[in-house]
Every structure is written in C-alpha cells, then in structure tokens.
Amino acid sequence: MEITFDKYSLIINGRREFIKSGAFHYFRTPGYEMALDRFSKMKASGYNTVDIYFNWNYHSEKQGEYDFTGVKDVRKVLQAAKETDLYVIARPGPFINGEVNAGGLPFWLLKMEDVIPRNRIGTEYHYSQKYMQYIEEWYNQIIPIINEFDNVILFQIENEYATDTMEEDYMRQLYKMARDKGIKCPIFHNDAYFAGLWANVVDIYALDLYPYINPNQNWRQDNFCFDTLDNVEEIFRNAKENSPPFIAEMQSGWFDKWDGSGYKHIRDALGDEHINIMTKTALSQGVTLFNHYMAAGGTSWDDLACDEVYTSYEFTAPIDEFGIVQNNLFKAKEINYFLDSFEFTNTYPIDFEFNQENIYTKLRHDNINDCDWLFIRNMNSETKEIELPFEKDIKLRPYDMKICPVNLKLKGCEIEFSDVEIFARLHNKNEEAIFMIADKDANIYLKEHGIISGDRKDFDNLTFEKDGKKTQFVFLTKHMADKSWMLKDKLIFNADYVLPNGAAAIEKNADIAYFDLKHKFAKKYCVVTEFKDYHKPEIIEDFSIDFCSPEIDLHYDYSNWRKIGEKTDSLSCGLYDEFVWYKAQIPDNIEEITLSARHLFAVYINGKEVLNRNSYKIEKLQEVPETISIMLDKNILSQDINELTILVQNLGFDKGFSGDTNSPRGLVTFVTKPEIPVQFYVNEKLSLERGDNRESDNPYLTKITVNFDVDFKNDVFFAKYLSLENFWYRRATIFLNGVKIGRYIKRTRVQDKFYLINEFLKPHNTLEIVIWEKDRNIKSVWGFKSDMKNVIIQIGTQKMYQLFK
Amino acid sequence: MVVVPEFLIKRVYKKGSLKKIDNGASLELKNVLGPGFISGFNYVKINDALFEPKDVKFITGGQELAGESVSESNQIAFRLNQEGTLIMNGKDCVVEGKNKIVIEVMNPEAGKVQLSVEDFV
Description:
The complex is a heterodimer.
Chain A lengths: L2 E3 L4 E3 L2 E3 L1 E6 L7 H13 L4 E5 L2 H4 L14 H10 L3 E5 L15 H4 L9 E2 L2 E2 L3 H19 L4 E5 L12 H12 L6 E5 L12 E6 L17 H4 L1 H8 L6 E6 L11 H8 L2 H12 L4 E5 L4 E2 L12 E2 L13 H16 L4 E4 L8 E8 L4 E8 L5 E4 L5 E4 L4 E9 L4 E5 L3 E6 L3 E7 L5 E4 L3 E4 L7 E6 L2 E8 L1 H5 L2 E3 L2 E4 L3 E2 L5 E3 L3 E7 L3 E7 L11 E3 L2 E5 L14 E2 L6 H4 L5 E9 L4 E7 L1 E6 L2 E7 L3 E2 L2 E2 L4 E4 L9 E9 L16 E8 L7 E4 L16 E9 L6 E8 L7 E6 L2 E7 L7 E4 L7 E9 L8 H8 L4 E12 L1
Parallel strand pairs in A: 4-5, 4-13, 5-6, 6-9, 9-10, 10-11, 11-12, 12-13, 24-28
Antiparallel strand pairs in A: 1-2, 2-3, 7-8, 14-15, 16-17, 17-18, 18-21, 19-20, 21-22, 22-25, 23-24, 25-26, 27-28, 29-30, 30-33, 31-32, 32-54, 33-34, 35-54, 36-48, 37-47, 38-45, 38-47, 39-44, 39-46, 40-41, 40-45, 42-43, 48-53, 49-52, 49-54, 50-51, 50-53
Chain B lengths: L5 H5 L8 E3 L2 E7 L5 E3 L1 E7 L2 E3 L4 E5 L2 E4 L9 E3 L4 E7 L8 E10 L3 E10 L1
Antiparallel strand pairs in B: 1-2, 2-9, 3-8, 4-5, 4-10, 6-7, 6-9, 10-11
C-alpha cells in the first residue's frame, strides 16, 4: 500500500482518504472475538480506521521475554482489523500513557539503575543509552508484527512528549529506529501541548485535544473550552505547512478516577452534543484525520490500571465497556456517514463575515464537490434564531452544531442552502438517494424548486429530476437515524446496530427495513425468540465462604519466600504485583513502628491486625505520601519473638504523564523504635493466585466462591456483569475463572458493577470474590462467616441482542 | 511536577512588559497555551522581592481580581489569547537592566504552574 499525503489529506494508493479513526485498547478488551465485535461495530458506524496502542508492559514481564500468545496475541487483533476492513494507526510507544500501569513501560525497566525512563527526569532531558537499547528490544519485537499487516497507515513514536529544552536526539532516534525496522508509512507524534512540538522530526504533525478534563466543571457554561479547537487550523499550518491536519486524540469521552464522579455523571455531562461539536468543529478547521479517543471503552483487568483509575475504563466511549453502542456513537455515525457521502478531503477556509455572541461560524470551499459548507454552532443556553449574511435564517438549539451545504450541485437539483442536515447518501451514475435528518425548524432551499420544509415523518420522500438524472430526498427522524446503518451501497433501518456482514441486531421484535438504489425499500419482521425479560439481575444465594489468608496465621511457614535487603519497596524487591506480602520477626521490646506504604495496607502481629489503612491520596495531580506510626504494647507483642506480617495493595504505578512512573510502591519505609534492623521476607499475589487454597485461621481475607452457567448462542450478543451494589464490605478483588477482573473499594463509591469479560466466560464459571476486611468489622471468626451468608451478590445481563442475517 | 515544557510556559509572559510603578511593579501576560482556569496565585517574585497573593492584583477581561480571592472555589477563566495585567504592590523591586521574574499559579488540571523569565527594563 502506498501512503503519501499533502496539506489536505492522506493519499492511499493514489486516492484521498478521510481518516475516521477510533481508539481501541486490545489489552482492555481482550481476545480476538471481542476485538472483532468492537471493530465490526466501529466499521458499521462509519469508522474506517482503528487506533491501537501497543502496551510494552502487557507483553513483557521480564527483560528479554515477550508474550504474544493467547489474549496477548496482537496478530489476532490486527487480523480482526484487517477482516473488518479497517486501517490501523499503530502506536507502540514506548510510552503510551492511556492510564495504564507505568504508562506502558515494563516494570523491570523501571528498576534498572542505569535507565532513565523516557530520557527525562522531571522536566529535564537526560539521555540514557541503556533506555534506548531496551526500546530497541521492544521495537524488535513489535515492529515485525506490525509490518506483517498492510493496512497499517500511520505509526506513532512516543506520546505526549516534551522536555524543557526539547533536545531532538531521542525523538530522531525513535524515528530512525522505526524506519530501519521497516516502517514504511508516515510517522507522527501526538503533541499534548498543541505547540508544534516535534513537527520537524516527524512526517505528519499531530496533536491531541481534550477540552473537557475536569468533570466538576460544566463545559456548557465554560463555552470557551473549545478555543484551541476553534483555532486549530492555524496551529497545524504554523507547525507544518505541508502535512494534513491530524488530531491524533480527539475527545469522545473522558476517564474517571478513584474518588471520581462516576461514568454516569461524565456521560450525562458530555451528552452527545460534545462529540458533535468536537468532530464538526475539527472538520470546520480542515481536519481530515481524526481519532476519537476512545471509540470503545475497556476494562483494566489484572494489573493493567495505573494508580489513578479503577477497573472500568468505560471512558464514556461511543461503544461502552460492555460493547454496547451509546448515543455518542449515533452522533459519530451521523458525521462519519456524511463524510463518506461527500469525501471532504480537499477544502479550504473562505472569508465569512459574521459576528454574534457565542455563535461560532466557519465557511469552507470544497474542491471536490465544488460547493461551500457552512459550519455553525450555538454555545448559548437557549435556542437562537440566526440571520445569516446571505439572507437565510437558522434556528439552532443550545449547544448544537450543524454542517450546512451551500450551492451543492446534486444529480437532479441544486441545494442553495440547507439547515436540514444530511445523514447519508447512496448514489450511482444517474441516481442518488440523500437521507436527511428531519427537523421541524429547518428547511432545504433548492434552486428552481423553492423551499422544502424539514418537518417530516420517517421515510417521507421527494424526487427531483434534471437531464435524465434523479435525486431523491428521504427523511428520517432523529430516532430513526440513530437506528439506521449504512453498509456500502445499502441502508438498514430500525436495527439497534448492524455488523459489516449485514446482520442486524435487535433487542426487541422489530420491522427491519432495507434500502438500496436498485431494489428500493424492502422490509422484514424480526421476532426475538431467544430471550424475554433479562433486565432483573439474579441474586446469588448459593455460595461458599473460606478464609483465605494463611500468610497472616501464626507460625505460617515462609521459609521459601525471598529474603530482601534494606530497601523494601516493590521496585527494589522486583515485586510488581498488586498484592505484596512482607513477613518478619520482631522482638518484644519494640515500642513503635513507623511506616509508609502504597496504597492500601494492613499490619498484623502474631496473626492479629494492628492497622488497616487506605493510604491512597492524590491532590493537585500529585500523590500525597503518608507516614504512620503505631504504638505497640505487651498485649500485641505477646511472644518473645513476634511474627510481623504486612500486606500492601499497590493500585498501580504512576502513568508518567505528570508524575514519575517509578514512584515507589509496596512498603516504602519501615522503622522501629528502638531502631533495629528488620529482616523481611517477601512474596506477591493472593494465596489463591499462587494455588494455595488452604483455609486460614484468621478471617481478614475471606473468599466467596460462586458458580454460575452461561448459555452461549451463535446469534446472540450478550454482556454480563457482577453487581456489588448492595455489598457492605470495604474492599474486594474479583476473579472470574481464575482471572482477576476487578477491584472494589467501597470508600470511593465509583464502581460497584463489574463486567464479566466475555473472553473469560465459559459455559460453567467460577467467580471468586476475595474480601479484605478490617478487624473492627469482624466481631468473631465464626460470627463473621455466618454474617457473610447474608451478603448480596447479583449477576445480571447488561444487554442482549439477537442477530438476524 | 507538571511536564509542561518551560519554554512553552515562558511564552505566556509578554516580553518587555515589566514596569516599575509606585511601590511595586506591573507586567503583562497573554495565554498562548490553551483555554483554562487559574485556581490560585501562589506568589510572584521579582528579583528578591516576594509578593504574596494579598499583594497581587490581576486585571483581565475588564475585571480586577485580588490575588487572594482566587481559589479552587473561585477560579478565573483565562481564555486562549486572553491578556491580563498583573500588579504587585508593597515593595519596590524593579531594577534597571536585568530583572528575574517568577510567577507561580495553580491550575485545576495541571496543578502548580511556574513561569520563570528574565526581562530588561
């Protein structure tokens, strides 16, 4: 595939292409089947490209060892993209951010003494030869795989990178490495500061734009949040005159954090107006390559998450974590279909004198369709009637934005102006059907034919003929447009979604309609037979309860654990798992211990808890370290030699955007009074993960085991979840068939519903929920077990669709 | 620590704008970084003179704001390309020739943002 570009667009095999991309994290949506499902939904919604971060950390647990098998098989992910006819934007870092653990840098790299991650300390540039050698090791693994696929059209080096002094050798070396290893497509970097950074180093200058990053603020009130986007064409032109405007990450949602406001709040706050404004404003600025970040949400299962985020990486994406299409997908679909209908790859801005408060306008001439397009946005909180300079009026709802054709020549007529928006166009040499979104306040002004009202019902249509050619306008209400899907030369109506093979998915019985220029309309009544009411989750009443922390028991044999030196933090010990255990013996004369641990931890002496603490705190984007002292007395230190156990839960390393990836985790400091050297032995993971299923004497970690069945059918899509909505315990870690799929922390109240990831579901399933409770909540060992029998655990189905071919 | 390159932050200061006023100084800022909010003025330092929020005024968009009134709960919107004048009162600090200026503000998303420049009077 030959990929070139000019100042307007990418040119693939000699043809201009508008790149409509969406980001997808294969590591958060594991396995070929799930990738294929999400890609199919993207493709059917008009995306032609998928953006893929390759996560170094996910593939490399030890230096020199790489795993591309099973769910880590990236060839299968790329194959799924190829099968769905999507181009790929490859972003293998080395640093990727993406709110993943350590920003995607492998843990082993963080502890290397002569490695400076990203050649940067704070904001200062420090070149590290050793770091470059390890990047070469990663590139040697990942680039040959990328090179196997001819649908890769763009390649990114680093991500959101900057230093105070902007030395170029690191970025130039990455560029050269990629080229030397056979990358043929254009190379870019993603500039988080929209300041033209690295424009001279790469082929195409690209930037990211997130106007809404603070869920506590209301973007509708702070309407200036689009200032940068409103001027982005100038930024592109100043940065690199001859490369096409490329927004490598364009906001389509936002991530939530521990102690955050929850994804429902963010989804409600953004509405579908935000993605509409973002995308249309980008088009108004000449952007011909965009990447909605994200197109599909995911799950930070296992230890994927950085410390900032919880398990769900729903991101309020157009396709949510469960794989369910959302309202913002419908909006993205409208724009994608419009772009497919008119290409939009060769336009330039033209002067348009207009000034009205909080109304943004931009006029562009389209060299391909030989017409103009007026972009108009209302950032007022009320509907505005807008008088345009060319004697047309528009009534625009609050926070709405439209793309209006001006002097658009069609086959059977010419649109002088229209504020009835175009949804999609099917056309052949002599005929076209233009699907318009009905709008009672809007009109189509046709030359020679006058005004056509947009106040229409579904499938109302009008036909115009000229010189033997025909244009048919077909109206769709917004509701029907949401349920309408364009597949090449066909439109499918009234489906909840469709797949590229033409299968229509529906939740309830429906009349599915089809339209193509040859056969016109056809209808099929589809009856959903597979399921009826699935909305009510099932309360699980049959489960077993076991105490599962033998490590805390007195006289636990830890002789095979690793003896460590003075430094006890995770990186120094080479322990990167979420759970790290520390065992030691201390004499009975210790009066006090003082420690700092990240993030949640508990201290047990002689099998009894003396402290249980959530030390996770972020203020002003920075971790707030906490050091705690515990007074010990004779009641606690009851033996001559006392057994000390510390369990630390590491919620992840810093993602490395504004903090350091190698900020310490685990037991960071430990001092006794009087001060004596303490010899620690360490191990990682929970006992069940190590295959140790002995029941412990102590109740601090308790495992609830649930068995449930799932009925798989070829023509049914479903997404299941575990609900801990009525759960009264403080913390839990969830395992589905032995795979860690979630972290629950009650204090944060942000996530109590966990996706039972389809890839890990089987016909017969085992769910294990390990509860880590505080001593004061455990009245007695057996009373606690008895209380636990009343715990409410629910398994439900988020959505089900039956597929009709 | 926020990884916004220092050279980008420096662009916010309008070169040549530092002026000596009665018992203080004034200077001009222009937001060339992107739209955002200021959620606090930590301090302004001109040469050896340190000005606390109570000694600082920020005039922008037709409003005059006392430095100490700006907080997380009372943020100032600072739009792309918006300009503002910072006035420091209470000490003579501007010298003829080279002056060292440090301004530290808070941003709700980026945390502490420090601008450090030199200007000649």
